[in-house]
Design goal:
Distance between the termini: 50 Å
Structural class: alpha/beta
CATH topology of the largest domain: Rossmann fold
Strand order of the largest sheet: 1-3-2-4-5
Helix content: 40-55%
Low-confidence stretches: 1-15
Strand content: 5-15%
Largest sheet: 5 strands, mixed
CATH class of the largest domain: Alpha Beta
Oligomer: single chain
Radius of gyration: 22 Å
Length: 444
């Protein structure tokens, strides 16, 4: 594939084109520094599976020079949208603002075929974005785990009789902890109040890892924060937006803007809107872009400015020192949408390094995607498996007894690839470890 630099005065010639600022494509000078950071290029070595290759393909389609055939779409589909290329790029190419609108265009124009079986589509679109539905849908899994039937199915091999899609989802399930139910609308600060924050709970994360949301609220209280938990908040919209479904994503965003009182001005009393899931945080911080065509564009921009990851917020605030010992050797995996989309790397490590007797060890290729990437491990299972095994091998090489990461998708993917190879490994959010060090509670 030729990657020659084109004249910046060249204009698109295709009338029905994606809603992409063409100048953003011209920012790419095809230097290739992004290739070593791209998980799919690292695995396949194909130029068309690299960020600059995909930009060349998208631009070629828009210019009418390259057909949007199955080969082209396959290379574009294989992108995880992990945005590692943005970190590596010296020219500041905003790759996420290229690939996402391009995918939206394919869905809108009917050029993107369904990549998931009907049942998985229903689960992703009608269950995952709704916290209560998630909790109800997980009841059979909770019962199977409580009775040991899930382990029996694994031992006897009967789980292999399940359809591949259901088997993949079952293998990703963590050991489900009891749900906290419903937290009060407002949780008071411990000691003198240092800040007032809104807490974003999310949807899938709240159902699968309720202990992390509860720990997040308690950690904030411990650090002198009054915590407001709006009742009508919901999915951030990332699941739909990354799948190319803009309308429901914008609807979720508008619901959250209302829940956090942006239009009424109630949100102005907040020092921050705190979120503990990297994917959700990146989406919430991008509400200005997501809502830019809607009537709530100004509200979206105002809201986005207050969103902070829990580690980012605590380090700025000045975290309270934990007093309980946690004598373990641990590794930290950088969730893509925390380190690349939000440029947050040091803060989670700083929190972990505060914990007495916790030894934090380096993880090779920590910033290479684990293969989760939202629903990627369902839509592209083969590449997701390759990246998951790559990540699992690096984690095992550290000899760590625990691995921490700040996103629900990463937790699920890493759990799946390590559950049989090292069942005793503690796989958790950094906030779980921090709360354990604050309270002395066993969080495993």
């Amino acid at each position: 594939m030729s990657v020659a630099i084109s004249d910046r005065t060249e204009l698109p010639v295709v009338e029905n084109k994606p809603d992409i600022d063409y100048e953003l494509m011209l920012d790419c000078v095809h230097c290739g520094l992004c290739t070593s950071a791209c998980p799919t290029y690292v695995e396949t070595g194909l130029e068309a599976d690299s960020p600059r290759g995909r930009i060349y393909l998208m631009r070629g389609v828009i210019d009418g020079r390259i057909p949007l055939d199955d080969v082209t779409k396959r290379h574009l589909d294989l992108c995880l949208n992990c945005r590692a290329c943005e970190t590596a790029c010296p020219s500041g190419v905003q790759y996420g603002k290229l690939i996402e609108p391009f995918r939206l265009h394919l869905v809108k124009t009917g050029q993107q075929e369904q990549r998931l079986p009907w049942l998985q589509r229903q689960i992703l679109n009608r269950i995952f974005p709704y916290a209560r539905r998630n909790r109800l849908a997980l009841l059979p899994a909770r019962w199977m785990q409580a009775t040991g039937i899930d382990r029996l199915l694994d031992k006897t091999g009967l789980s292999s009789l399940l359809p591949r899609s259901l088997r993949d989802m079952q293998e990703m399930l963590p050991r489900l902890r009891p749900h906290y139910g419903r937290m009060p609308l407002v949780l008071p600060a411990e000691g003198p109040r240092r800040a007032r924050v809104g807490l974003f709970l999310g949807c899938v994360a709240d159902a699968l890892y309720p202990q992390t949301n509860l720990a997040t609220a308690k950690v904030l209280q411990k650090n002198g924060c009054e915590v407001w938990i709006p009742r009508n908040q919901g999915c951030c919209g990332a699941l739909h937006y990354h799948a190319g479904h803009e309308v429901p994503a914008v609807a979720f965003a508008e619901e959250n803007l209302s829940a956090f009182g942006v239009a009424s001005g109630e949100w102005k009393s907040l020092d921050a809107v705190v979120v503990n899931a990297a994917g959700c945080g990146a989406m919430l911080k991008d509400y200005a872009h997501l809502t830019h065509h809607s009537s709530r564009a100004a509200d979206g921009a105002e809201f986005a400015r207050k969103v902070q990851d829990i580690s980012e917020f605590l380090v700025k605030l000045g975290p309270v020192e934990p007093t309980h010992s946690l004598p373990i050797r641990a590794a930290y995996h950088d969730a893509c949408h925390l380190c690349h989309a939000q440029q947050i790397r040091k803060q989670p490590r700083q929190l972990l390094e505060m914990i007495p007797d916790l030894e934090l060890v380096a993880l090779s290729e920590s910033e290479i995607c684990c293969g989760a990437a939202g629903s990627y491990n369902l839509t592209q299972p083969q590449m997701a498996d390759r990246l998951g095994e790559r990540k699992a091998n690096h984690i095992l090489d550290t000899g760590a007894a625990a691995v921490f990461t700040a996103n629900v998708g990463c937790l699920l993917q890493i759990t799946r690839h390590l559950r049989h190879r090292n069942p005793s490994l503690w796989i958790a959010h950094p906030i779980d470890a921090l709360w354990s060090a604050y309270s002395g509670e066993e969080m495993k």
